[in-house]
Amino acid sequence: MSGGLEVQRHASGEALPEWVARLDRTAFGAAWKAPAAHEALWLLPGLAFARWACIPAAGEAELLRIAVDPAHRGGGLGRRLLEACQEALAAEGMTDLHLEVRASNQGAIQLYRACGWEPCGRRGGYYPDGEDAVLFRRTHS
Ligand SMILES: CC(C)(COP(=O)(O)OP(=O)(O)OC[C@H]1O[C@@H](n2cnc3c(N)ncnc32)[C@H](O)[C@@H]1OP(=O)(O)O)[C@@H](O)C(=O)NCCC(=O)NCCS
Predict the structure, then answer these.
(1) The pTM is what?
(2) Within the chain, which residues score under 70 in pLDDT?
(3) Cα(74) to centroid of ligand 1, in Å?
(4) How is the chain split into domains, by residue range?
(5) How high is the mean pLDDT of the chain?
């Protein structure tokens, strides 16, 4: 199903495609604005997006949001997208990667583990509803 799909980088300054805002609302309840100058967005067009905050001078990037269309989850798209982002970021010198995730989000946690991320901390009551955040880090390229 996903054989010929190509991960694309969304050009900064371009309007956010409507399907990204739609998927953002579906997955997280609200859509963010167009990426800021220090952010990067990768897409599997119509199917998935991953949004990052980048600090190239420090070799660091933080995964802000990743989402796959609900009808296409569990088929390897999240992994394909995340691995493509990791490769592209490493090519730009960003190999110190960070993220935080809800402790209950086992699907995302499995994806991160599958892509070489390791838990490195916890923030109690981090989310507005009181749920803890688990911190993950990935340091190799
Ligand atoms: C998290 C998310 C991006 C995963 O995308 P996906 O395309 O379904 O994931 P994949 O099919 O690529 O699976 C990647 C790995 O995670 C595992 N996995 C994925 N979803 C899982 C689930 N719900 N439960 C257990 N394991 C799961 C897969 O088995 C796979 O492991 P493997 O490669 O070792 O077999 C997707 O479920 C999603 O969009 N969730 C809603 C948004 C969200 O919570 N984002 C994360 C917080 S920003």
Answers:
(1) 0.95
(2) 1-4
(3) 6
(4) 8-99
(5) 94
